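Support request from a user on the community tier.

User writes: "When I paste my structure tokens into the form, the page sometimes reloads and wipes my input. The last time it worked, I copied everything first. Here is what I submitted, just in case something in the input itself triggers the reload:"
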């Protein structure tokens, strides 16, 4: 949802900016297509880098934990027991739970309860990259389509704001948040972003004139 909103806002803003500068229709379309590809690629690259860094940190924590488990099993059992005691078990039960979990899956128990990593749900850089690129593209396609068909900044802006309102509403519904507030917020900030780039585009278009662009 967030990636799709990014796609709508950044692409629609860019398009109203170049339309505001008086750019001819063909160039508007080329700009829009480049915006979709560049945005999707940058989301994928950014997400891949950040999730990879997270995965590296998880791996190094897990390796350190595995080494500790090999080196000093008694200490690690006591450590696990004290974690469960801290969560409300009495000390005898905590020790019992810790001992049984050490037998069953020592690394899994330490990963989950000591360092907060769920071994069944590890950071997946490639998957995260694909998902965000796809989400961005889904959002970015509509403003480009409208710009291509109508070459009109107002239509791009109005249809994009409508789409943002829908996606903001769905996002709030899924997240159990206040729907009118979420819709108002995304509509306001999305419109502000478009108005800002339109203004800048218009100023640049006025300053250089359309001869410069052609
Ligand atoms: Zn440990």
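"...and here is what came back when it finally went through:"
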């Amino acid at each position: 949802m967030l990636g799709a909103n990014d796609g709508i806002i950044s692409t629609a803003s860019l398009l109203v900016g170049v339309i505001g500068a008086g750019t001819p229709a063909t160039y508007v379309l080329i700009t829009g297509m480049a915006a979709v590809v560049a945005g999707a690629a940058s989301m994928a690259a950014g997400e891949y880098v950040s999730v990879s860094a997270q995965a590296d940190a998880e791996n190094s924590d897990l390796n350190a934990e595995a080494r500790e488990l090999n080196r000093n099993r008694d200490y690690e059992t006591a450590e696990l027991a004290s974690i469960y005691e801290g969560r409300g078990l009495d000390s005898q039960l905590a020790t019992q739970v810790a001992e049984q979990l050490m037998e069953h899956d020592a690394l899994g128990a330490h990963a989950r309860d000591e360092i907060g990593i769920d071994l069944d749900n590890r950071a997946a850089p490639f998957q995260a990259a694909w998902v965000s690129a796809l989400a961005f593209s889904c959002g970015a396609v509509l403003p480009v389509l409208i710009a291509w068909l109508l070459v009109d900044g107002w239509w791009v802006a109005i249809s994009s704001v409508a789409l943002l309102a829908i996606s903001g509403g769905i996002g709030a519904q899924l997240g159990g948040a206040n729907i009118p507030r979420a819709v108002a917020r995304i509509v306001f900030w999305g419109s502000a972003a478009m108005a800002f780039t339109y203004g800048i585009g218009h100023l640049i278009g006025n300053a250089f004139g359309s001869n410069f662009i052609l």
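Agent notes: The reload is a front-end session timeout and is unrelated to the input. Residues 54-115 form one domain. The two ends are 37 Å apart (CA to CA). Escalated to web team.
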